[in-house]
Amino acid sequence: MVNRKEIEAAAERIEPYILKTPLIDHQFNRDSGRRILLKLELMQKSGSFKARGAFNSILSQTVPDSGVIAASGGNHGAAVAYAAQVLGHTAETFVPTISSPNKVARLQNYGAVVNQVGTEFAETLEACLRRQEETGALSVHAYDEPQTLAGQGTLAREMEKQASRAIDTVFVAVGGGGLIGGTLSWFEDQVKVIAVEPKNAATLNKALEADQPVRVPISGIAADSLGARQIGNLGFEAAKNYLHSSILVEDTDIKAAQHYLWENFRVTAEPGGAAALAPLLTEQYKPEKDETVAVVICGGNVDLNSLL
Known about the structure:
This protein is α/β, with parallel strands linked by helices. The protein has 13 helices and ten strands. The protein has two domains: 4-48 and 146-307, Rossmann fold (3-Layer(aba) Sandwich), CATH 3.40.50; 50-139, Rossmann fold (3-Layer(aba) Sandwich). The protein has a six-stranded mixed beta sheet. The protein has a four-stranded parallel beta sheet with strand order 5-4-3-6, sandwiched between helices.
């Protein structure tokens, strides 16, 4: 796990390179007048929160002449490629064959060498690790290293400072555990943090049931961004210490959340980016009257045709 001091240091380190993304106070339910806060992190550099961890990881370590290398469902790879480009390093990325053409194109636009290997992230990661041993490039893990976790924790720090009132509850989508781990490491037990996962990609939920990280089958519309087959050790430890609860949602609910964000804000969230909103739309979670709820909309690298 990382601590607030490390997240503060990460925030200072990456501040010149990232955006302060909007936090919107939204009237969610007109009948009750209930409002929620939406953290539009899909507007971040490279299209997702991953830029925070990528910049912090690269800036915290010595980068060899062979550059950096990363395995990703797409968003982490884009963040690493973008950060490498900005900082003057070469980048090689490995993504699953299920990654959307939009995400692959973004990687290439950032100047990265792109390798599509395996239908699941676990296969992709294995290929990346073999290549890293050959080249000696700096490996930037998508979620299970302290530098990445501290970088992702800067989102929670930023959101807390932006909010005009104290946040009671935060909804965060979970893939490998970097964002939930960073969020929990910042808020600790001062805020109720709720993990949201697709039913067919429930890495954290199943790990909590087993009391240890376990491999789970992955499928569904959010598999390219929330498709880590096993929760990271750091994110799992943070969840064991501080997580309030875990909610599983259907793909249809995620799709409805994407449409809700488009209809209300004209923002195009990818499935994984919209997932955290789904439990509120389905009323799997009903906030108390005076409860201040924040939802992280964490990614926007979506094929526009998929929203139709």
